[in-house]
Specification:
By secondary structure, the chain is an all-alpha fold. The protein contains 7 helices and no strands.
């Protein structure tokens, strides 16, 4: 369970990332609304987040950082267009989060090859844990 502030930070990051190509696509907005609902973030407060600056506050555990990275990747693939700025930004975010670059690249390439752009949780965990071996 996330605190309201943690949920707010997660949503701010998703909103910022979804608009990096200069547009907010309907599928991206729906995805953000679904995440807000799953985080039990008040719908009335969500709209205000679209007008806030995004402070970058990394998640505490490595698992939470990969989880947030995966959310960002999902929103990147959500509109079925990968803008060059999105690709560069997600790699910068991975660096700032302290994630292993080869693991994040494997995650992104696996998502790109999959028609649904999703990864089963077991496969995602395997991609992450390969860096530890």
């Amino acid at each position: 369970m996330y605190t309201t502030e943690e949920a707010r930070t997660i949503l701010l990051e998703l909103i910022h990332f979804s608009t990096i190509d200069g547009q907010l696509h309907a599928r991206e907005k729906q995805f953000i609304e679904m995440i807000a609902l799953s985080l039990q973030f008040p719908a009335a407060n969500l709209l205000a987040l679209y007008h806030e600056e995004m402070p970058i506050i990394p998640a505490v555990s490595e698992f939470e950082r990969y989880q947030q990275f995966y959310r960002l990747a999902l929103i990147m693939f959500c509109d079925q267009r990968i803008h060059e700025r999105e690709w560069q930004f997600i790699q910068e975010v991975a660096l700032r989060m302290g994630l292993n670059l080869s693991a994040t690249k494997r995650i992104l390439h696996t998502m790109k090859r999959n028609p649904q752009t999703t990864i089963k949780p077991a496969v995602l965990m395997q991609l992450i844990q390969e860096q530890h071996n």
